[in-house]
Automatic annotation (TrEMBL):
PANTHER family named in the record: BOLA-LIKE PROTEIN 3
InterPro entries reported for this sequence: BolA, BolA-like_sf, Mt_Fe-S_assembly_factor
GO cellular-component term (any): mitochondrial matrix
Pfam family, one: BolA
Name of the protein in its database record: LAME_0B00826g1_1
Domain of life: Eukaryota
Family designation: Belongs to the BolA/IbaG family.
Amino acid sequence: MFTRVARRLLSWTPEEKLIFDKLSKQLSPRQIEVRDVSGGCGSMFAIDITSDKFKGLTMVKQHKLVNKILEDDIKRWHGLQLRTRTE
């Protein structure tokens, strides 16, 4: 996994890196993928994240937690595709 993440880090946009850093700091994920799915303009992102911090939370509460962490950034986006998991 770390090799895949390391290769991906080399091609990240600044916004993808910012999202990755914020979520990593707050959620200590076991797995995280952040992709700009807007064609590179930074208006829509797909986030797939697995974190133990989601345990015991409904999917709605997991998504609210991510939205809270990224609330200042989300204001600039057109959309967000979010997948959260505990395992």
